[in-house]
Amino acid sequence: MKNTLWLWILLIVVIAAVLGYLATFLIKRKNLERLEELETRKIDLFDLPILEEIDSVKKMHLVGQSQNTFREWNQKWVDISTISFAELESLIFEIENLNETFRFFKVKDACEEASKTLANMEKEVEEIRLGLKELAESEERNSEVVQEALDAYNEISQSVAEDPEIYGVAYKELEKQIQGIEREFTQFKALNTAGDPMEARTVLEEAENKTYEIKEVIEQVPPLFETLDKVFPKQLKEIKSGYETLKKDHYVFENDTILANIEKLESRIHSTLMNLEKLEVENVAKLNKEMAKDIDSLYDLMEREIKARQYVNDHKAQLTNFLRHAESNNESLMVELDHVSQSYVLNDNEIGKARGFQAQMEEIHKELEVTEIALEEKKAIFSQIAAFYKESLAQLKDIEAEQLNIDQSIKGFIPRERKALESIDDYELELRMLKRYIEKQRLPGIPNNYLEFFFVTTERIEELSRELNKIRIDMNHIDFLVQSCQEDITSLKDKTENLIDSAALTEQMIQYANRFRFSHPEIKNAIDKSMSLFAREYDYEEAFNVISEAVERIEAGVTERIRKYYLNNKDNMI
């Protein structure tokens, strides 16, 4: 029994030893893998081309703040590659020893510390590389800016030196400022070489600003100078020559200040050249624009007189003939109005208008004589005469149109009178026919309202006849009476038809109602009332309404049926 127990104990010890050995082996192997990972990361870190990148930036010969920044990144790399690297190597060596002596808990802590140290080194190296990259790119950009400024300077310097004539009075000042910029670039190079980057940068910025400023000025100067030196003087010379020619040709200018304005412009050109000499290009551009506008005004003034003279020559005969024609028409119109006014009333002040036309034409005639004298004496201002011609022609055109309207209006009096006379005969015939038409119906009587309207219409026609028999006829009133008579006749026809239709329909409705006379007492009462209205009061429309309403209550629709039958057979029944 004891032997068996010891065997079990021995077996457990052996198994525990084996398991302990396996655990130790696996932990040690895991730690070795961690060490290999750290070694790999360390090798990858120091295989990065950071030394080449540092050397590349170093060759750029940085100055100022850029140089200081580079030194900081370089020192940081030196610290990492020496101090941090030594610390990492020490930790790795310690991990190897701890792992070999099976102090696994300390191995884990040491591995974590080494990994953290390596991670910090990787992060710092990445920052160094990014910083070096930004520094290189920034320096490259700065170099490009400096080169652009130098190129711009060389361009303007060469441009001014090669063709000084196009800059005129501004050349000396341009040359002076270019030389000043050249001195600043030279000073920049000297300061940079001497190791004073901050002052060098300040001088460079000043040189760059002046370079681009003077470049803009140089681009503006040639056209400004050409305008002042060639264009304006040529134009003023041309204006002066043209003015003298026009004066010899007897042109007269209102408030003539052309020569004085030319002298003022010449003085302004001289003073503006002095401004250009000081490179005040914005002010010169503004002054040039103002002078160009004034010069154009002088051209316009002379051109206006030339065109005005041509207009006067082209329209002189037209105005004279038109005036003569309008005066002749007005004389004929006055004679015609005097004749017409003996027989007709003139409602639109035709005679007053014709006299007004005559007064206008007399004013034109007087002014025309004044202009003729001015033309003969060579004192005429053609623009004023042209304006008078245009205004007079427009007035004569309006006068002619008004004369024509009046002439057509009075010529229409006789046809309108004739038409009114013919209308009276037509209206009287219409009245006689309506009267016979009613008499033919043998009605018991005629309603008073119809008779009143008939007499009103008759009186209107008689009034029209009386008006037409007057010594002087008012055609406006005649036209009104003709229209009123026509409207009355039309209305009387409608009233006549309605009167006859109501009487005939009443008779037919009473005949139809007799069949209900004994069976429906109310029908008998309606018939009696309708007959009374028909035979005594002659109110045929109301008589029809009374009997039709009574019959409709017994036999709906009968009224419309009888009305329809009557209208279809009206011509045969009346």
Automatic annotation (TrEMBL):
It holds the Pfam family EzrA. Keywords: Cell cycle, Cell division, Cell membrane, Coiled coil, Membrane, Septation, Transmembrane, Transmembrane helix. GO terms for cellular component: plasma membrane; septin ring. It is a single-pass membrane protein. Residues 28-574 are cytoplasmic. Residues 1-8 are extracellular. InterPro entries: EzrA. The chain crosses the membrane at residues 6-27. It comes from the Bacteria. GO terms for biological process: division septum assembly; septin ring assembly. Residues 111-138 form a coiled coil. Its main location: membrane. It is found in: Cell membrane. Belongs to the EzrA family. Negative regulator of FtsZ ring formation; modulates the frequency and position of FtsZ ring formation. Inhibits FtsZ ring formation at polar sites. Interacts either with FtsZ or with one of its binding partners to promote depolymerization. This is Septation ring formation regulator EzrA.
